[in-house]
Design a protein that fits this description.
This protein is an alpha/beta fold and 285 residues long. The protein has a single domain, classed as Rossmann fold, CATH 3.40.50. It is 38% helix and 24% strand. The protein contains twelve helices and ten strands. The strands form two sheets. The protein has a six-stranded mixed β-sheet with strand order 6-7-8-3-9-10, with helices on both faces. Strands 2-1-4-5 form a four-stranded antiparallel β-sheet. Helix 5 packs across helix 6 and helix 8 packs parallel to helix 9. The longest helix is centred in the last third of the chain and has 16 residues. It is globular and about 55 Å long. The two termini are 29 Å apart.
């Protein structure tokens, strides 16, 4: 469950000083034995999202090699690692964007097998929403129309409109711009719209891909505060990929470090932040 702590969203940046290949080699050198027992202990309770022995990729290319993952209800997990490690592929696999060669994905208190469901089925029936990287809003549509698009799987358009009004009640900043075209929003407001559009279907699980990408520091803070609110107040389960490892680990209850399609290190977010080896590779020293 979420940690009871004050999260510092404000500081730090990561300067790239070694190549991706070097990072991959160095992470592999400090990799730990990651047992199922360990990742279950990190979840701290029954898993709400569970991945078991996942081998997945694109076309015939296997990117993930036997991934196990556990996240409890209302918990947050941040995936970090060098480019090409398979972080986004985990999100894609959960949501149905990859070919799954082996393994299972379970979601919910009843451990529903969602492995073979389509993305639409996962959103409508399993309560899983995918929040894409930047530039996924429809710039020519108004804020209100963008939110309505988030409810495209609702049985009736009126249901989507009612859900959109609930989002406006939650975020007055968007409500004040409901008739504005999305293209005139600031970067932070666009990201808020992307997150809010996913909320129209009232999902239980949020898959968040690079929430800080392309944003000014003040907007990064705002986005992480929004995600913190969704987890701690609304009980959303969040699985995130974040290149800004410091921000991601400050936010998340637990973190996995991936390398070459496998989990190399797993621990509590605080512990990974304090790990000098992780710090040297991903936190700027």
């Amino acid at each position: 469950m979420p940690r009871d702590k004050n999260i510092g969203y404000g500081g730090g940046s990561v300067d790239t000083v070694i190549s991706v290949d070097d990072v991959t080699r160095q992470v592999a050198a400090i990799a730990e034995e990651i047992t199922v027992s360990k990742i279950e202990d990190l979840a701290g309770g029954p898993a709400f999202v569970s991945i078991e022995g996942l081998r997945a990729g694109y076309g015939k290319m296997e990117i993930l090699h036997g991934i196990d993952l556990r996240v409890a209800k209302g918990q947050s997990l941040c995936l970090i690692g060098p480019n090409g490690a398979g972080k986004s592929t985990i999100l894609h696999s959960i949501f149905g964007f990859t070919n799954i060669f082996e393994g299972k994905i379970f979601v919910g208190d009843d451990r529903s097998d969602v492995t073979k469901l389509t993305p639409s089925e996962k959103l409508a029936n399993a309560g899983i929403a995918y929040i894409l990287q930047d530039k996924s809003v429809f710039p020519g549509m108004t804020v209100e129309e963008n939110l309505w698009m988030g409810g495209f799987l609702k049985d009736r358009p009126q249901q989507a409109r009612q859900s959109a009004e609930m989002v406006f009640d939650k975020y007055p900043r968007l409500a004040a711009r409901r008739k504005h075209k999305a293209k005139v929003l600031s970067g932070g407001e666009r990201r808020l719209l992307e997150i809010s559009r996913a909320l129209v279907m009232n999902p239980e699980v949020l898959l968040v891909d690079e929430p800080s990408i392309g944003l000014e520091p003040r907007f990064i803070d705002m986005v992480f505060e929004i995600l913190d609110d969704l987890q701690r107040r609304d009980g959303k389960t969040i699985i995130m990929v974040e290149q800004n490892a410091k921000k991601g680990l400050e936010f998340a209850d637990i973190g996995y470090v991936l390398v070459s399609g496998e989990i190399a290190i797993a621990g509590k977010g605080d512990d990974l932040l304090a790990n000098p080896k992780v710090g040297q590779l991903f936190l700027g020293g």
